[in-house]
Amino acid sequence: MFEFNYRSIGMFEPIFHSHTFYEVYYFHEGKCNYLIGDQIYNLSPGDLILMNGMTLHCPKVDPEIPYIRSIIHFDPAILRPYLELPQAVPVMRPFEQFKNYRLCLRGKEKEELEQILLVMLSHQQRGDKVGESRLLLAFVDMLHFIYDQCLQPLGEQREVPSDKEKTVQEIIALLEDVYMDDELSMELLHSKLHLSKSYLAKIFKDVTGVTLFEYVYRKRINEAKILFLLHPSLSVTEVSFRLGFKHLAHFSRLFKQQVKITPEGYKKELKKDRQLHKQLEGEGN
DNA sequence: AGGCACTGAGTTATCTGACG
DNA sequence: CGTCAGATAACTCAGTGCCT
């Protein structure tokens, strides 16, 4: 699995999502707050984000100003041939070490990365086998560049967040602890943070682009998918209770809303995948 | 028959915009 | 940063269908 999208325009994509592969996200221009897991990044041109796809992420975009970014999705398995060379540098370490990470590239470093992106684009545009292979090599080069940057002492990587963003960061930190709690409510957040319920709702949406409970439910449904994957024997009811839902009906409806398929249907799909996988393995031997 | 997953519809909580 | 009120979305209960 390898996908490269050069300088694509993001207009309206407040879609909170996760995926099973890794992502490299480079911000070219525009205005964007990026919410990844429990962190909010106020992106500036030259920012590069490394992401473990299982972490929920979503950009919060100003619809007036289109923003331009390049995105690379990849399955680390495709890099194996390059990583097993005797002199190989462990370029995947930054992805493994930090669940997600932002590099602020400026000046020479920014130019170098953009140069690599251009090279990748030219290889991609050839559209043949050689192009494909060189695209991958250029990407491996990019990973070396990233690895190198991660070794540099962090000259200030972080902008100073506004008070509002700090508060939202606090809300998110709190939610990280309690998002699976079945007693979670605005009342609880209000009592812990001493801010009015409507104000909490307002600044959260302002900064992240999603409502508070949308954030919570995205996290829960994401967790549900992981539970179904790792523990096929768990029933839908059991999973819904573990995630803090008081009613199966509620979980079922939200799951279908987000995943476009019922939880039971999702389990069945996973089962089919597993059987297919086994079958292919059997034929392989 | 009994358990489980899902849906319809009324109730309740959250969201959002206006205003102080 | 808070309050208020109307709009919207989530919660809950009751009921249905499917499977064993």
Automatic annotation (TrEMBL):
<keyword id="KW-0805">Transcription regulation</keyword>
<dbReference type="InterPro" id="IPR037923">
    <property type="entry name" value="HTH-like"/>
</dbReference>
<dbReference type="InterPro" id="IPR018060">
    <property type="entry name" value="HTH_AraC"/>
</dbReference>
<dbReference type="Pfam" id="PF12833">
    <property type="entry name" value="HTH_18"/>
</dbReference>
<dbReference type="GO" id="GO:0043565">
    <property type="term" value="F:sequence-specific DNA binding"/>
</dbReference>
<dbReference type="InterPro" id="IPR003313">
    <property type="entry name" value="AraC-bd"/>
</dbReference>
<keyword id="KW-0804">Transcription</keyword>
<dbReference type="InterPro" id="IPR009057">
    <property type="entry name" value="Homeodomain-like_sf"/>
</dbReference>
<feature type="domain" description="HTH araC/xylS-type">
    <location>
        <begin position="169"/>
        <end position="269"/>
    </location>
</feature>
<dbReference type="GO" id="GO:0003700">
    <property type="term" value="F:DNA-binding transcription factor activity"/>
</dbReference>
<dbReference type="InterPro" id="IPR014710">
    <property type="entry name" value="RmlC-like_jellyroll"/>
</dbReference>
<dbReference type="Pfam" id="PF02311">
    <property type="entry name" value="AraC_binding"/>
</dbReference>
<keyword id="KW-0238">DNA-binding</keyword>
<protein>
    <recommendedName>
        <fullName>HTH araC/xylS-type domain-containing protein</fullName>
    </recommendedName>
</protein>
